[in-house]
Amino acid sequence: MNxxxxxxxxxxxxxxxxxxAGIYFVVFVGLFIIPASYLMxxxxxxxxxxxxxEKKYIRxxxxxxxxxxxxxxxxxxxxxxxxxxxxxxxGIRENVVSIKPTENGIExxxxxxxxxxxxxxLKRIKKKGFSVSSISINDPKGNxxxxxxxxxxxxx
Length: 156
Known about the structure:
Blueprint: H1 2-10, H2 13-69, H3 80-90, E1 96-101, E2 106-113, H4 115-128, E3 130-138, E4 146-154
Antiparallel strand pairs: 1-2, 2-4, 3-4
Helix pairs in contact: 3-4
């Protein structure tokens, strides 16, 4: 330590100022510039990561928009309401006595129905993708007003 002090005292004022400025410069570079450059590299990496995430987000938004505009496919689910709707569309709704679920499908009982309307109902059932697994048709009075009991299930 004495040698350093002796060396420092042997310098002129101008040399002392230059030496102190040089020491401050080295300390400044060591403490501020090097960590700042490391932080700048880290910031650049984070910005690139943000840009890629933004691109992914934009792509996801485009996919969401495309699928929100697409109409969902109508699934042919066999339910009481679907059968009731088909009966109403074919004109036999007022003749339906009962619609009830069973293990094998849905049982529909219709009385005093016109054969043409019954045929229309059966066509609509087939068009929806359902099948009639059993059907019983009676014309008890012989007046073309039919009593029908049928079991409707999924096709296949």
